Amino acid sequence: EAGVVQSPRYKIIEKKQPVAFWCNPISGHNTLYWYLQNLGQGPELLIRYENEEAVDDSQLPKDRFSAERLKGVDSTLKIQPAELGDSAVYLCASSSSGSGGNTQYFGPGTRLTVL
Amino acid sequence: KNQVEQSPQSLIILEGKNCTLQCNYTVSPFSNLRWYKQDTGRGPVSLTIMTFSENTKSNGRYTATLDADTKQSSLHITASQLSDSASYICGGASGGSYIPTFGRGTSLIVHP
Asked: A23 has which bridge partners?
């Protein structure tokens, strides 16, 4: 079974430029998450989707960040414009819907460097 | 606010030795406690998930314990291998959510 796929794996951009990350979750997983992970820190939730609906986006900086999951499968996270402080690893995860003990499966992440 | 604190921040051990990592959590109301292993350049991989009623759970050479009274968890690694070198992250989830608040992780280095 294929795991969570993310692309690109690495991205280097100059500040004020736009950037987009793509995620394809495990087949059949209704729940998709985007996390941000700074060096030496644990992941922090940005947004959670149940199918195509964003059910928890309270930590998403909506002035510059946006996300979509149009058909309830793959998802895109965008930053426009990027700032120096956005340099981090952006992780995508998925899980099957159901009880609170569901395992989250993480992708390899996209490492963003903003110059 | 939910909080998770891990110790030590980093640990170096020799191959074949055992070690124990600690996690203190303030998660209310408590739902579950998770341990993840994160290799460099990879996403976290789930090791164990424990609910309030579970006080120990094993996954191969990894054994997690949970003390709901003291709000502490530990991850014990037996007979360490070089491949155990990674960051180990603890996460506590509240209510009926399966979205954990993560700690900063413990960086483990296993030397030959």
From this structure: A6, A75
What is the chain A residue with the closest CA to B43? A108
Neighbours of A68 (CB within 10 A): 14
In this complex, the residue of B4, B43, B98 whose CB is nearest that of residue A95 is B98
Nearest chain B residue to A111 by CA: give it.
B41
Q: Name every chain A residue with its beta carbon within 8 A of the beta carbon of B4.
A: 42
Average pLDDT over chain B, rounded to an integer? 94
For the record, the structure tokens of A26 come out as 């495990």
DSSP letters, A7-19, are E-SEEEE-TT--E
* Beta carbons of B108 and B47 less than 8 angstroms apart: no
pLDDT tens figures, A87-104: 999 999 999 864 555 889
Joined together, the tokens standing for residue A105 give 């499966």
The answer to whether B80 and B21 have CB atoms below 8 angstroms apart is no
User: Best of B54, B87, B99 to disrupt the A interface by mutation (most A CBs within 10 Å)?
Assistant: B99
